[in-house]
């Protein structure tokens, strides 16, 4: 397959001692300051239960840092502090924007997510089982997703029934499907990469990949898309489309398909605009939100007003009026940050996600096995795309589709799956270097 | 493949750069216009957090105040209270839904105060200043009680400073319940929201005699020896219609009276066969200013709402000599001098109305007033109302 070596693998130089202290404590300090701010704004009483969430976060963060340092000393040192910052920020926003019980739930999911992160990072066996059983995983994900057609509920009582519930806990299978889709695509593309690039058939004047190699892929992916569209989970469908293109491009390096798909997407958008009311509504709200500012484009207009009222410095946590935006704690948490932390805060979030994405891609470049490489690319692309779709959506750059801002928005399944993916990234970063330094080729 | 991965990463990072650009656009460049949009809920929120100053009468009695109540986001919001509904038309209302009126609107910049950058930064509630009104609460309550179920208005001015002492209009409304009753109030044919003292236009009727007299005396024309008992046509004969209109203009009837509250200009008669001198229509405030000119040195004071009122230069209606002559002709009723008259509105089907315009005390006047009752020829009621209310105003 001929994988070029990366000149400087991530984490190859062990970071200076002060870095681990500083990077570990700064995100936690930020979180504590936010919770203190919220307590001050509310009534000034510093009760213990108010700080349950940040204390749990600190406990999880310290445990994870310690275990990772002990068992995987050469893992990527930027990733974990970055994710702790985002999660801490998210907990503070959930406390700010949603009722108390939501914060408790989110904290619980965060603890579960930390377990999943550590398991994914430190699970003693290789990732072969993940790679081999690709159809099983994807089918499992699709099965769970399919279950929502029969057993689906919506925790809030109204709206799309995308959740499976048991004992007061709700899980959104489409979130798990994201991870399973990344695994499936990475595994499939890693196996057939050469064939996809080299074996072609002629259709008319164009050379396209052989159907034998591309059809299982298109079938599985198309089936997932259909399920999501049927469920009207437009956000997840958009993400899967982008993820597929990104990973296909990364594996084959052929940009013409990306272009063709882009044209296809725009075409589908135009058709959808005339056929589906949902699509027409979103596109109209995007093109000219001011025309129906109190009606159909209420959300986007209120989001823009929140950004504007934040200005550069922000109103201060707990002192703005982000609650004017409907469902602010999931889809519009970015606008809430914009109002209360200002441009400084939103640019900080953008930079954090840029760092996260570039770390994921650096880890990918440091991996030698094709599957691992594509896995890291897929995870990085997924984080990047998801953040971009919701950020650009709330800023009226693209039509709005409801997805969560990874780690920050309220949403347990999303947090759990995102943390698992970070665990996988950490594992790949640690292993890539260990293997390179020891020259050990075995998994 | 490495190249493709690097390109993919660059594309994603470029996306974030575009997002950063959009952030700068909305949070810096577009922010001022957006924040000022009328549908920004933060404006209402900010408005509700203003601690408006109080409105007080000349003695310091509270007419309107703001009381805090817990609001969303753990900040106090303020609700406006009006402990004296008798002052409704003078004080007005302040409503987030229906705007403001009366002194609440006139003194809004003072009442709301200014927000310094420090207060904005610390999210402190903006605090306005109190405003003392020249009106006297006790008299206003008395006038309100005396007017009772009559439809009409009473207004009284200080003849030298023009300070507004009393202003009551009936039917009235309760500003505390404005938002709940708005629909009924606006649909009510008796127009309770209308301030009849400054916005109600009434034909002068019998009082055309006094306007004509002022015109005749100013022109230096000889008047009949007993001008109160000559017929109106005979009395006004030397004064042409143009002369009558010029007099009305000179007395300020064709203009809005100089007051900060909403007020209407008078309406000159058209002399088209239906309308005569009696159909010159003016507001009670126009009449009260004319009475002030008669009671004083011939100058009509500007109307002052705040206390203490500075001496007003006023506009000259006629010379001091004319004022003295008119005073000599004005009948007196128990210490109060005034002109009683009935007017019949041109619109058929409307009841006649009663005017009482005058000043007190009869010998050394200091207060000028005008009273109008819309419900028929009710001269005794007008006299008894005016007598009691004006007595309360005199030292």
Radius of gyration of chain B: 28 Å
Helix tally of chain A? 15
Q: For this structure, what is the CATH homologous superfamily of the largest domain in chain B?
A: DD-peptidase/beta-lactamase superfamily
Going by helix content, strand content and strand pairing, the class of chain A is mainly alpha
Largest sheet of chain B: 6 strands, antiparallel
Instruction: Report the mean per-residue pLDDT of chain B as an integer.
Output: 89
N-end to C-end Cα span of chain B: 100 Å
Task: Report on the architecture of this protein.
The complex is a heterodimer of chains A (443) and B (395). With 443 residues, chain A is mainly alpha-helical. Chain A folds into two domains: 292 residues, no CATH class; 139 residues. Chain A contains 15 helices and four strands. In chain A, helix 1 runs parallel beside helix 3 and helix 13 runs parallel beside helix 15. The relative contact order of chain A is 0.14. By secondary structure, chain B is an alpha+beta fold. Chain B folds into two domains: 83 residues, Alpha-Beta Complex (Penicillin-binding protein 2a (Domain 2)); 257 residues, 3-Layer(aba) Sandwich (Beta-lactamase), CATH 3.40.710. Chain B has a six-stranded antiparallel beta sheet, sandwiched between helices. In chain B, strands 3-2-1-6 form a four-stranded mixed beta sheet, with no helix packed on it. Chain B has a two-stranded antiparallel ribbon with strand order 4-5. Classes of the chains: A mainly alpha (443), B alpha+beta (395). At the A-B interface, helix 9, helix 12, helix 13 and helix 14 of A face helix 1, helix 2 and helix 3 of B.
């Amino acid at each position: 397959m001929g994988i070029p070596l990366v000149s400087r693998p991530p984490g190859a130089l062990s970071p200076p001692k002060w870095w681990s202290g500083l990077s570990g404590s700064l995100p936690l300090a930020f979180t504590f300051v936010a919770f203190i701010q919220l307590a001050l704004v509310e009534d000034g009483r510093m009760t213990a239960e108010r700080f349950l969430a940040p204390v749990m976060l600190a406990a999880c963060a310290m445990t994870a840092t310690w275990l990772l340092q002990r068992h995987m000393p050469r893992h990527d040192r930027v990733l974990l502090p970055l994710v702790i910052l985002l999660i801490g920020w998210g907990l503070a926003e959930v406390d700010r924007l949603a009722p108390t019980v939501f914060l408790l739930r989110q904290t619980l999911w965060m603890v579960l997510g930390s377990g999943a992160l550590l398991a994914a990072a430190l699970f003693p066996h290789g990732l072969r089982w993940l790679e081999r059983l690709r159809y099983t995983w994807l089918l499992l994900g699709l099965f769970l997703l399919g279950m929502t057609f029969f057993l689906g509920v919506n925790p809030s009582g109204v709206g799309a029934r995308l959740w499976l519930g048991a004992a007061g806990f709700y899980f959104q299978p489409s979130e798990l499907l994201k991870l399973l889709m990344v695994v499936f695509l990475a595994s499939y593309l890693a196996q057939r990469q050469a064939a996809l690039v080299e074996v072609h058939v002629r259709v008319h004047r164009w050379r396209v990949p052989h159907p034998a190699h591309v059809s299982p892929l298109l079938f599985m992916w198309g089936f997932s898309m259909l399920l999501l569209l049927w469920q009207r989970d437009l956000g997840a469908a958009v993400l899967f489309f982008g993820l597929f293109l990104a990973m296909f491009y990364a594996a084959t390096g052929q940009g013409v398909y990306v272009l063709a798909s882009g044209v296809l997407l725009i075409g589908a958008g135009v058709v959808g605009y005339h056929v589906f009311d949902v699509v027409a509504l979103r596109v109209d709200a995007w093109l000219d939100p001011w025309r129906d500012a109190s009606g159909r484009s209420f959300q986007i207009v209120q989001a823009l007003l929140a950004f504007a009222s934040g200005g550069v410095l922000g109103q201060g946590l707990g002192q703005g009026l982000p609650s004017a935006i409907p469902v602010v704690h999931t889809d519009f948490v970015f606008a809430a940050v914009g109002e209360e932390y200002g441009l400084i805060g939103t640019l900080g979030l953008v930079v954090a996600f840029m760092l996260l994405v570039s770390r994921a891609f650096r880890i990918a470049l440091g991996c030698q096995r094709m599957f691992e490489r594509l896995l890291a690319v897929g995870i990085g692309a997924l984080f990047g795309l998801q953040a971009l779709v919701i950020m650009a959506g709330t800023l009226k750059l693209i039509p709005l589709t409801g997805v969560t801002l990874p780690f920050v928005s309220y949403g347990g399944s999303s947090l759990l799956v995102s943390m698992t993916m970070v665990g996988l990234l950490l594992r790949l970063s640690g292993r890539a270097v260990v293997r390179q330094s020891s020259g050990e080729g075995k998994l | 493949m490495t190249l493709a991965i690097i390109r993919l990463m660059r594309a994603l990072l470029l996306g974030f750069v575009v997002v950063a650009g959009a952030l700068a656009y909305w949070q810096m460049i577009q922010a001022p216009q957006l924040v000022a949009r009328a549908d920004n809920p933060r404006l209402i929120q900010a408005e509700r957090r203003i601690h408006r100053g109080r409105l007080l009468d000349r003695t310091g009695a509270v007419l309107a105040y703001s009381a805090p109540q817990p609001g969303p986001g753990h900040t106090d919001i303020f609700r406006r209270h009006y402990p004296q509904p008798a002052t409704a038309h003078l004080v007005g209302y302040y409503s987030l839904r229906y705007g403001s009126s009366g002194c609440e609107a006139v003194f809004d910049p003072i009442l709301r105060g200014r927000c310094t950058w420090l207060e904005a930064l610390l999210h402190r509630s903006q605090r306005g200043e109190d405003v003392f009104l020249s009106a006297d609460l006790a008299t206003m309550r008395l006038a309100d009680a005396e007017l009772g179920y009559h439809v009409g208005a009473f207004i009284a001015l200080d003849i030298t400073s023009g300070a507004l002492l009393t202003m009551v209009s009936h039917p009235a409304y309760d500003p505390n319940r404005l938002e709940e009753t708005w629909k009924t109030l606006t649909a009510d044919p008796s127009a309770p929201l209308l301030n009849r003292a400054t916005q109600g236009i009434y034909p002068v009727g019998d009082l055309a005699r006094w306007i004509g007299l002022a015109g005749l005396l100013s022109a230096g024309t000889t008047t009949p020896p007993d001008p109160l008992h000559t017929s109106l046509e005979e009395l006004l004969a030397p004064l042409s219609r143009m002369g009558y209109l010029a007099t009305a203009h000179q007395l300020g009837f064709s203009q809005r009276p100089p007051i900060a509250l909403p007020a209407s200009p008078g309406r000159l008669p058209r002399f088209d066969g239906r309308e005569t001198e009696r159909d010159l229509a003016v507001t009670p405030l126009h009449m009260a200013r004319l009475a002030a000119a008669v009671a004083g040195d011939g100058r009509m004071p500007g109307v002052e709402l705040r206390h203490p009122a500075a001496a007003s230069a006023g506009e000259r209606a006629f010379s001091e000599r004319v004022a003295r002559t008119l005073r000599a002709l004005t009948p007196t009723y128990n210490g109060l001098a005034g002109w009683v008259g009935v007017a019949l509105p041109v619109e058929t089907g409307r009841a006649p109305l009663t005017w009482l315009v005058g000043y007190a005390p009869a010998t050394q006047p200091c207060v000028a007033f005008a009273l109008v009752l819309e419900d028929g020829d009710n001269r005794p009621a007008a006299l008894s109302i005016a007598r009691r209310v004006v007595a309360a105003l005199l030292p």
